[in-house]
Each structure stands twice: as C-alpha cells, then as structure tokens.
Amino acid sequence: MHALVAKQDIGSLYASHADWLNDWLRRHTQCPQKAADLTQDTFCRLLEKADPDPIHVPRSYLATIARRLIVDDARRARVESAFLEVHALLAEGARQPGPDQIAEAVNELMAVTRALDALPERVRRAYLRSRLDGCSHAEIANELGVSKSMVKQYVARAYAHCYAAAYGAPHPD
After folding, report:
1. Nearest to 6 by CA among 62, 46, 59, 60
2. Which contacts qualify for 109-113: CB closer than 8 Å, 24 or more apart?
3. In the chain, where do the E strands start and end?
4. Less Cβ crowding at N or C end of the chain, within 10 Å?
C-alpha cells in the first residue's frame, strides 16, 4: 500500500498494517504484551497528530514511530529503575512506593529529562555539572572553555527553561 493516507484513513491503515506492526514489534521486543501495547501506542500517536502529513510508505512510517516508542519505553524503564534504586537507598526501611507513586515520579522525572534534553549541549552540561556534581562556575568555565559569566548565563537559562517546562512560561503583568 503506497497510497497517501490521511487522518480519516487511520482505521484502514490499522486494518491493513496492525498485524504486521505487531509482528515486527514482537521480534524487536521479544514480548508479545509489550508488542501489543506498542502497536496500540503507535496508532494512538497517529490519532494525536493535529494534522498528520501524508504517509507515502506506511510500514516505514509506522516502524519509525514504533522505534521511537521503543526508545521512550527503554528510557522510561531506566528512569523507573533508577528511581526505585535511589528510593531504596534514601528511604531505607520505608515502605516500597505503590504503582501510582512510581508512575507519578517517573512521569515527573521524564518531564525533567525531556526539558534538559531540549537544552543546547553546553547549557545542559553547565547546569548538570553545577547542580548534580556541585562544581563551581570557575571549574565549569575552565572545562567548557568559556567565562564564568557565560556559565552563570547558561545555568540561569537552564533554570528558566526547566521552570517554563514545569509551570509554563511566566506571564507579564
């Protein structure tokens, strides 16, 4: 099927390619349940697009969306694992968080990750070295080959970006 596919044709696209996509995902994930979930998520992504571009090669397009979902799923699993590991270390003897608490924490951590990933490399690096590693602006400036005032601007830019991602852009009065 190499015809153009519009949003109203997603149902026929699903009927024509869902089984193929599910098989493709099963081979890549080695898990029938995960493959079924990712198949559904792939078509949900198509439905969520406000005005999808015409699809010239449906299987290639679907596989691209599915690959991105696999990467997102793997990243989410790593974030969840890291959260549970840190929780176990910091909350020794405390009750294990419930599924809702884990999901909420992972969603928040994923939002932070997306916000940081959207920053330019030097800005992200300066912010992370400052906040996570406790490096001084002078140390970061030396490492990045920029001035201390530039590091200060990078860190401020990252703070502003993360704030806007978490709370929305500030509104002028």
Report:
1. 46
2. 109/79, 109/83, 110/75, 110/76, 110/79, 111/165, 111/166, 112/162, 112/165, 112/166, 113/75, 113/79
3. none
4. C
Task: Report pLDDT digits (tens) over 29-43.
Answer: 999 999 999 999 999
pLDDT in tens, 148-163: 999 999 999 999 998 8
In a domain, 94, yes or no: no
Q: Is residue 62 a part of any domain in this protein? A: no
Q: Which residue has the tokens 């912010």?
A: 127
Q: How far is CA 8 from the centre of its chain?
A: 28
**Amino acid identity, position 66:** A
How many domains does the chain divide into? 1
The DSSP secondary-structure symbol of 96 reads: P
Owning domain of residue 164: 119-173
Q: Is residue 51 pLDDT above 70, yes or no?
A: no
Residue 98 lies in a domain: no
